[in-house]
Amino acid sequence: MQTEPGRGDADDDVGHGGYQPAGTDSTATGSSSSVSVTGTGSAEATPDLMVVSIGVECRADSVEAAYSRAGTSSEAVTSAFRRHGIAGSDIRTTGLNVRADLVWREGEGQRVTGYVAASTLTVRLRAPGSASAAISDAVDAGGNDVRLNGLELTFNDDAAVRARAREAAWLDALRTAQQYARLASARLGRVLSVADIAPVQGPVPIARMQRAAAVESLTVETGESVVGAAINVVWELLPGA
Fold first, then answer.
1. 43 pairs with which residues across the strands?
2. SS (H, E, C) the chain
């Protein structure tokens, strides 16, 4: 795929590598050229790990009282999770703070009306199917001091689902490269390079939280999570048969 003898750069509209479809990176050295394409793919699987962020927030007239109450509520939440078989290594404190509760009053300016102590726990639930009961008991244990910040559905080990996503990305790249090769009246040769494109978004939960009709707790439906992959592959382009 070389330029024709006698043609100047000003007349070479297709570039140094000859035919170059949009979206490819085609280069030539001597009689060889290459095509670079990006492939994307995804795979779905049922998540087997739920990560819950739950905390307590307590107000009192003094720092000591607010801190003590927050500690008591946080311990009640932790104990509720442990009663459901959650190991201590899966319960981690990720936030702890105490602040003044301020209000503005006309003619007086800012005044301290009390103090707020807050603590946040990150809990890993390795049996998502029974997570609703564990979360409900933890919320009941903490009472009105509890703040349920959110949850994430993911995997203990996502190697298998990521492998399927990469396979899908490879096939996508291969189909694209084969199409470009046909358009260029060429054929694919050996693979010159393969590279992951990162970062790829982590598991995207297709889960739902809904209020149960007959109980006062929330039910959690795990659904499926989607894991994506993207790769860049460079193939050698050979003269067409």
1. 227
2. CCCCCCCCHHHCCCCCCCCCCCCCCCEEECCEEEEEEEEEEEEEECCCEEEEEEEEEEEECCHHHHHHHHHHHHHHHHHHHHHCCCCHHHEEEEEEEEEEEEEEECCCEEEEEEEEEEEEEEEEECCHHHHHHHHHHHHHHHHHHEEEEEEEEECCCCHHHHHHHHHHHHHHHHHHHHHHHHHCCEEEEEEEEEEECCCCCCCEECCEEEECCCCCCEEEECCCEEEEEEEEEEEEEEECC
Residue (of 155, 157, 156, 153) closest to 207 by Cα position? 153
Contact by Cβ (8 Å): 145, 69:
yes
For the purposes of burial, counting CB atoms within 10 Å of the CB of 184, is it exposed (0-12), middle (13-18) or buried (19 or more)? buried
Average pLDDT over residues 75-79: 95
Amino acid letter, residue 134: A
Per-residue pLDDT tens digits for 47-68: 889 999 999 999 999 999 999 9
pLDDT tens sequence across 96-107: 999 998 888 777
- Which amino acid, 171? L
